[in-house]
Amino acid sequence: MPSSSLAQNQALADSIACGEIALTDCYLLLEHDEVKARAVIMKDISYIGYLTIEAITTKELQTFLQEIQKELNPKQNWFCDVYSDKKHFPIIQQALHQCFAICIERESYTISTYPIDTSKYKHTDCTAISDTQLLSLIKDANESTLDTSIQNSIRQEGSHAYAKQFLNELTDSKEKRSMFRILWHQEQILGFVCVQRLSKEIGGIGYIGVRRQFQSHQYSSILLQIAITIAYQNKLNILIADIDKKNAPMRNNLLATGFTKDCEQYVYYTY
Questions:
Q1: How many helices (H) and strands (E) does the chain have?
Q2: What's the predicted TM-score (pTM) here?
Q3: What is the rounded CA–CA span in Å between residue 221 and residue 97?
């Protein structure tokens, strides 16, 4: 679609070609054989993604979204998001406000990746520890997170169930496991950072966490440096980090590491 970035259009095309996204999960609003709106349903993570529109009204988009919602499992807490730099952002935001009950305001930061010498820090991929240890690590990070989305999911699904589901999302491919980095001091785990490929050349920080007893020691900054390097080594030229607006500590760490604020993000939930 013209209103979508080339990178997003290509990412969607690649996901369809490899079978990651089924055509039956792609919804289109057509007018005289022209695509006026699209959305992709990702049932496994309860996500409505790739939402893009051309020149349509808020009411038309609202009706399109409501028709999609009729097809969704009401037992799942579906979510959708929009960035403030998205074309036709005001119309998309207004329609999402009408169709979803909860909105979480976030900020998006980016950096052009480059090699950083992190050899003085011991870090390994997540295969260095057992699945049980990994699950414990995620649960520990979740308990002190400032991420409202994670807090809401824990309240709805329970700490253990959500951590297990989230861990699976972060480690369900060989590449994801290799870019899930654990920071060590001697034999102690200090924290972790997960880098994920969003498109051919763009990556995102899926999660970053420092164990509670080691917080306030600048380990987040070290983990961000590791993330930048890992992204660079995997030919990801841009690295994105999204945070809650209220997360001042992580904002400060991102800015200190060289990230710049790109835009705002609004995440909408069914309940």
A1: 9, 11
A2: 0.87
A3: 35
Residues 27 and 96 in one domain: yes
Neighbours of 222 (CB within 10 A): 22
171 lies in some domain: yes
85: nearest Cα among 8, 21, 137: 8
* Nearest of 201, 202, 203, 205 to residue 191 by alpha carbon: 205
Q: Which domain holds residue 189?
A: 112-263
Put the strands of the sheet holding 238-244 in their side by side order.
Answer: 26-31, 34-42, 47-53, 79-83, 260-269, 102-112, 238-244, 202-210, 188-197, 180-185, 122-125
pLDDT tens digit sequence for 100-127: 999 999 999 999 999 999 999 999 999 9
3-state SS, residue 160: helix
Domain-embedded: residue 270: no
Do 221 and 208 touch, CB atoms closer than 8 A?
A: no
DSSP at 15: H
